[in-house]
Amino acid sequence: MKGNRRRRVSSDGAHWIPFVEKVTWPLLMLAVFFAAETGATSIGTWMNLGLQGLDVLHNPQAYLLGAQPLCSRLSGLSRGQTKLCYLYQDHMAHVARGARLGIHECQWQFTNRRWNCSTVDDSSVFGPMLSIGSREAAFAHAISAAGVVHTVSRGCRDGQLANCGCSQTARPRTLRRDWIWGGCGDNVEYGYRFTEGFVDVRERELNHPRGTRAQARKLMNLHNNEAGRRAVIRKIRVTCKCHGVSGSCSLVTCWQQLAPFREVGDYLKDKYDGATEVKINHRNKLQIRNPRYNLPTAEDLIYIDESPDYCVSNEKTGSLGTEGRVCNRTSLSTDGCNLMCCGRGYNTHKTTVKERCKCKFHWCCYVECKTCHYVLDIQSCK
Question: In CATH terms, is domain 322-382 a member of 3.10.560.10?
Answer without folding.
Answer: no
